[in-house]
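User: Study the chain.
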Amino acid sequence: MPKRLLRLSSTLLAAPAFAAAGVVMLVVAFLSALVIEMRSDAVVSSGLQAAGMDWVTVASDGLQVHLAGTAPDERARFRALNLVGTLVDSSRIRDSLEVTPASALAAPRFSVEMLRNDDGIQLIGLLPEQPEAGGIDEAALVAAAEAMTPGIEVDNLLEAAAWPAPEAWNDALTFGIEALKMLKRSKVSVAADRVEVTAIAESAAEKRQLEAALNARRPEGLRLVLEISAPRPVLTPFTLRFIKDDQGARFDACAADSERARLTILRAAEAAGLPAGADCTIGLGVPTPRWAEGVAAGIKAVAELGNATLTFSDADVSLLAGDSVAQGDFDRVVGELRAALPPVFSLDAQLPKKEAAQGPAEFTAKLTPEGRVELRGRLTDEAQQAAVDAFARASFGASKVYVATRLDPDLPDGWPIRVLAGLEALAVLHDGNLLVRADTVEVKGVAGSLDARARVTQILSGKLGQGQTFRVDVTYDEELDPFAALPTPEECAAEVKAVVSAQKITFTPGSAEISSDSLPVIAKLAEVLKDCPALPMEIAGHTDAQGSESGNKALSQARAEAVLLALQGRRVDVSGMTAVGYGEGVPIADNGTEEGREANRRIEFVPKLAAAAPAGETAAAAPAAAPAAEGPDFSGDTSPSVAPTEKTIRPKPRPETQDG
């Protein structure tokens, strides 16, 4: 009995002991898990903060480490997971990270740079892989470049992107190709909203012509940046003539050897009373690098005298004071000018004295607007008379010279030189008069060139020599300028539209023979187009839907070519024209009615921005591409129409007269 009680008491004591041990173990396990959570949280958070990943939120749950937050991109999310994996066992990581949604990719900026020189053409840039309908893709651009330089391979560095072409891209690229065709040494940079052209022209006149042509053909809304340079002209003699009298201060001719010299001369002239806005030609042939210094000193002397004429002809300087200048002032100013002029210059200064008239000794020449020259007055002897007659016939035409001169052996020295120099200067003008006297040579008239007055001054200054007086009164008339008188492409297109709108071009049924009733229309078109050299134009043929599609297209092509050949036969420059047949593909009316079929049978003249095709390329060689914005078509009978254009009316210029 006592043993049994002892065994029972031991059993009762073991149960509480085991329970107490279990509680202790639970407490230890809980505390251990808590320590592990805190340590994991601290280690992971510290590592992420050190790596700059403060967008990650860490939460530990026992052995598990939960990561939450929004990563800026997938790459950042991957880096965060890798970093945490180096700090705790990867099996413990629970990934709840998100990634910021990617925004839509921006379309690339399409641009093309085209470089052309004597060695060929290089194309660089990014094009749309699939341009809009009728647009220019990489193959078409390369083909256009190859046509400009036959036999020379184009350096193609173009790339394409699978994005739609931006608005106005095709117009800008087409205009850029046209500019490249016109400029043999150039760089043309094309973007959808901007075309930049850097080029070299052969002369200042060609530079003005190219700038006018490019500005006239620029698509509406496109920004055009032009930097066309021209070589400096060679000025012989290097001439400057500055006058100040009761009419004010002015230049008859102004030349400088650099931009800095030009500014120096113009500042000196403005200080002497010249109105702002005058210009000075920068050219080659200056006799000394100190040209501007000498000219500025001479202009200052004229300003101090108040009434004088200053002429620089190379290194020869002439200063002719007016009648109102006092002798004392003249002597003082001339002395100061001699000291101020660089050593290379030679000064001849004169103060005219009031004397009785020397008599009626004079020689005159009158150049009429028709080109007829009438020579009257006195010449020294038969040798001079023969020389003047031969010179005039060579300059103005043998059949246009009328000579009514008489001989006078007592004429002043240098008379023959004065007469010939005056005739050479008169030949620069469209019409005018020459007066040669013992004390002066006067040339007065009208010219169709902005440079005529300066050229007349150069001739007289160089031929007459230092110290000789002359007067130049030349007026510029824009209507006589061959460049200014040319109609613009818009005016040409409007004229063509007016002609073809008045009467439809028709053909013999089923053939490409122009009907006799339409020959007057062709003649009127030829008359208009003769004043529009190389006008970029597409002659488009269209038919109705009767017959086969291939037959209609062939017929429309043949009829378009017939119109082109008819114009060419009337001596029209068709190098900028192409003939394209569209068959029945571009109807403008219902082919189910006779009236609709009649309207669809037509010829259209469509102006195009692309430059003219190379000379010698036939119309048949033009690809039958999709029609332009106003698709041309031509089928049986034809009715040409031109895209609407407003005709520019140029006001008649108001001539400016400047005396020399």
Notes: The first strand starts at residue 56 and ends at 61. The chain has a mean pLDDT of 82. The domain at 239-350 is CATH 3.40.1520 (hypothetical protein tt1634).
